[in-house]
Description:
Layout: E1 2-5, E2 8-11, E3 23-29, H1 34-49, H2 53-73, E4 81-89, E5 92-99, H3 120-127, E6 130-136, E7 139-146
Antiparallel strand pairs: 1-2, 1-3, 3-4, 4-5, 5-7, 6-7
Amino acid sequence: xxxxxxxxxxxxxxxxxxxxxxxxxxxxxxxxxxxxxxxxxxxxxxxxxxxxxxxxxxxxxxxxxxxxxxxxxxxxxxxxxxxxxxxxxxxxxxxxxxxxxxxxxxxxxxxxxxxxxxxxxxxxxxxxxxxxxxxxxxxxxxxxxxxxxxxxxxx
Length: 155
C-alpha cells in the first residue's frame, strides 16, 4: 500500500503531518482485502486530524463500501490497483475511489427483502451529504462528501 500526501508519496504509517485541507492518496491492490486495510488508514488519519466521531464513522463505512464496489463491479486501474483519495476542510471529508471502470454506471440498487447484496450505494447515499460518479478516459471515480456539502456537483 502506498500513501501519498498532496503530490508526493510516502510509505503507509509514516508521519507526513495532518493539516486541515491536506490531501491523502493511497493505492491498493484490486482485492476485497483492501477494504478493511483502507478503513484503518482513513480512520486513523481522520482521528489524527480531530475530525468529529460521527463524520469518522460515516467515512469509515463509505470508503469500505466504495472500495468493495470497485473490486466487485469494476476493473482495476492499468497498474492493477484502485486509488483512494481523501481530503478534509472544516470537518467536511471528501473521499474518492478510482478504478478502471466497469460495464455499468454505479447507482443505488432498488431495495429488496431477500437480496444478498446491492445495498452498498444505498448506504453511501444515506450517509453522504452528496455523492457522484466521474467517468474519464482512464476509468471511473465515485466520490462522496461527508459532514457537509462538497464543492462538486452531486449525482
